[in-house]
UniProtKB/TrEMBL annotation:
It comes from the Eukaryota. The keyword Protein biosynthesis does not apply. This is Aconitase/3-isopropylmalate dehydratase large subunit alpha/beta/alpha domain-containing protein. CDD domains: IPMI (cd01583). The keyword Iron applies. It holds the Pfam family Aconitase. It comes from Lactuca virosa. One of its GO terms (biological process) is oxoacid metabolic process.
């Protein structure tokens, strides 16, 4: 079992909060003050400055209108309303609906029950069906789920059904993609300014493209299948401004673990989380996807990053569909604004059993591991494996992993990248060659794998109480199998470093 490590508590000096209330914006001083109001309990004000004094002129209609955030603008466009504020309930037109083998059968059942067995979906080209969760298993019920998806897709002539028929060899299935959230991006279904809904909580990953993306339940999905619409409440927005050059030992996983550790797993409940700043602008699309992927672990309704040249470049060969990005107005109101000096951050982990149980990786150096897992929609992208390979190379090229280290690419394209893309600075070696030399398990078939526990024969599932360091997104009891297992969440850098030592390890041990 693991050895306890110390907890990083309290607000960090590099994490400042700017509050906004009644139109006044407040900046962070070097101290906090407490004020009292009659008939109210005392409350702590974390930051204060002189309110803005610019004159507020009424609009020509006599009502005062403020600017809108990115999320509010997307809702406004999708609901065909000129102006919205947080808390309003509006019917939105959905651009894309995604479902997979876990929730798809349930959503299809709702659709047939409410609209009729012979009903047709609202738009066969706006529905994306991606089997990915319980694929490579002999569990007959799991296999039956994929059969239901196939029957429905054939019946409705769904254009984007990424089928798998030969589970013994995923490469024999050219249509099979893998993890839905990564496949959505790779296949061009993510576009700025649009609304993407999916029957999976990590659908928020697509917010990296400057769109509103969130998870919904089977009942809502069944309704969307029939109408293309959904009633949604406009969320208020938390803004996270991250500035400074990203240290070469940090990844986006460290950034989002820092934020979740600061605001807690309920700190963004039904709120949009908007990420801006020079650090965010420097991130690749895959790193932005990591950032948005875990907003739901803070309770967030959606995560969103403004589209820019990086976004447009990524989409060049992915989609021919027209899209129109939106950006927050200068006058937009944010519920709170947080400023982070990224240069002062250190590699982090989230200890069992919550994503907000934040600690510095170096504080957990005595935690002995039984296994390391690199994969999932959070940490199974091409760049995640390139990052892990970089640490193995930095060990001198002769370092061997001390614990079983599982490699599970998110999609079939990522799997191909592991065998074909040369790792920078490796002399032409690929990730698969570097992993093999380090003693890692061979890259497995692309899927959600052990991240979702799954059937008993699911690859890399914990079938006994073990301590695992993982690049996944959740570390609740039973998440990766055995309910007594302990899961530490970390970046691919930290995962690879920890695999080499058999203990939770700060990647700077090898990278510097």
């Amino acid at each position: 079992m693991s050895t306890p490590c110390s907890i990083s508590s309290g607000s960090s000096s590099f994490f400042n909060k700017i509050s906004q209330k009644d139109g006044g914006q407040y900046a962070q001083p070097s101290f906090a003050i407490t004020i009292s109001k009659q008939k109210q309990a005392s409350r702590k004000i974390v930051s204060i400055m002189t309110p803005q004094t610019s004159e507020r002129k009424p609009s020509t209609t006599g009502s005062v209108k403020t600017g809108m955030t990115m999320t509010e603008k997307i809702f406004s466009r999708a609901s065909e309303k000129s102006h919205l504020i947080p808390g309003e309930n509006v019917w939105v037109n959905v651009d894309t609906l995604m479902t997979h083998d876990v929730c798809g059968p349930g959503a299809i059942g709702v659709f047939k029950k409410e609209f009729g067995n012979n009903a047709k979906v609202w738009d066969r080209e706006k529905i994306v069906i991606i089997p990915d969760h319980y694929i490579f298993t002999s569990d007959e019920r799991a296999n039956r789920n994929v059969d239901i998806l196939r029957d429905f897709s054939n019946e409705q002539n769904i254009k984007y059904f990424y089928d798998i028929t030969d589970r013994g060899n995923f490469k024999a299935n050219p249509d099979y993609k893998g993890v839905c959230h990564i496949a959505l991006a790779q296949e061009g279904h993510c576009r700025p300014g649009e609304i993407l809904l999916g029957t999976d909580s990590h659908t928020c990953t697509a917010g990296a493209f400057g769109q509103f993306a969130t998870g919904i339940g089977n009942t809502d999905a069944g309704f969307v299948l029939g109408t293309g619409k959904l009633l949604l409440k406009v969320p208020p927005t938390l803004r996270f401004v991250m500035d400074g050059e990203m240290p070469d030992y940090l990844l986006a996983k460290d950034l989002i673990l820092q934020i979740i550790g600061e605001i807690s797993v309920s700190g963004a409940t039904y709120k949009a989380m908007e990420f801006v700043g020079t650090t965010v602008e420097s991130l690749s699309m895959e790193e932005r996807m990591t950032l948005c992927n875990m907003v739901v672990e803070a309770g967030g309704k959606n995560g969103i990053v403004p589209a820019d040249a990086t976004t447009f470049k990524y989409l060049e060969d992915k989609t021919s569909m027209p899209y129109e990005p939106v950006y927050s107005d200068d006058q937009a109101r944010f519920l709170s604004e947080y400023r982070i000096d990224v240069t002062k951050l250190e590699p982090l982990v989230a200890k069992p059993h919550s994503p907000d149980n934040r600690a510095l990786a170096r504080e957990c150096k005595d935690v002995k591991l039984d296994r390391v897992y690199i994969g999932s929609c959070t940490g199974g992208k091409t760049e995640d494996f390139l990052a892990a390979a970089r640490v193995f190379l930095a060990s001198g090229g002769n370092g061997k992993v001390k614990v079983p280290t599982f490699i599970v690419p998110a999609t079939q394209k990522v799997w191909m990248d592991l065998y074909t893309l040369p790792v920078p600075g490796s002399g032409g070696k690929t990730c698969s060659q570097i992993f093999e030399q380090a003693g890692c398990d061979s890259p497995r078939s692309p899927s959600c794998g052990a991240c979702v526990g799954g059937p008993l024969d699911n690859y890399a599932r914990m079938n006994e109480p073990q301590v695992c360091l993982s690049t996944t997104n959740r570390n609740f009891p039973g998440r990766m199998g055995h309910k007594a297992g302990q899961i530490y969440l970390a970046s691919p850098y930290t995962a690879a470093a920890s695999a080499l030592t058999g203990f939770v390890t700060d990647p700077r041990v090898f990278l510097h």
